[in-house]
Q: What sequence folds into this?
């Protein structure tokens, strides 16, 4: 929240929490709503690994219940982002040919709720390196200013690397691909 002065429907600069140009003074921060923990099994693979990788995502509301929208697809596919450390080019893996999903809404309480995803790893699909696995879901926030969501510069319902622009703090999810040579 900020304190502002309005005179005849216009904001009054240099009063309250507005500077002389009408910008809000001070740093505004977003309140943390969820504790997000990601676990990967196995955590380390060789780049010629062929098999299943399981991703468990733990969500826990911090203050009051939070509604999250989790992607659902008719064919049971999932989508995960691999954010390679030291790179600025995340890798998207999806079990389906489409990256649009319908969403199911879940209310997350203060007790931990775990969602399990998985994917079949094929040899050579990821180069050797250290990755952060990012699960894809959205938080419903009726009170989020539309200007904030518009500032992300992409359609929130379209899965892709721009999802990483959303301010989330996550724990865990480290995944290492080692060279098989």
A:
């Amino acid at each position: 929240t900020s304190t502002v002065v309005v005179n005849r429907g216009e904001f009054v600069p240099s009063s309250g929490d507005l500077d002389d140009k009408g910008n809000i003074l001070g740093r505004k921060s977003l309140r943390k709503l969820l504790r997000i923990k990601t676990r990967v099994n196995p955590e380390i693979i060789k780049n010629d690994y062929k098999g299943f990788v399981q991703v468990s995502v733990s969500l826990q509301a911090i203050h009051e219940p939070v509604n999250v929208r989790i992607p659902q697809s008719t064919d049971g596919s999932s989508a995960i982002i691999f954010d390679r450390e030291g790179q600025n080019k995340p890798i998207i893996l999806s079990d389906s040919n489409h990256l649009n999903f319908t969403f199911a809404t879940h209310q997350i309480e203060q007790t931990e709720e775990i969602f399990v995803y998985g994917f079949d790893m094929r040899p050579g699909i990821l180069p050797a390196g250290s990755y952060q696995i990012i699960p894809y879901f959205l938080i419903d926030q009726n009170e989020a200013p539309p200007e904030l969501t518009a500032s992300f510069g992409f359609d929130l319902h379209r899965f892709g690397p721009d999802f990483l622009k959303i301010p989330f703090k996550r724990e865990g999810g480290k995944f290492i691909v080692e060279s098989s040579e």
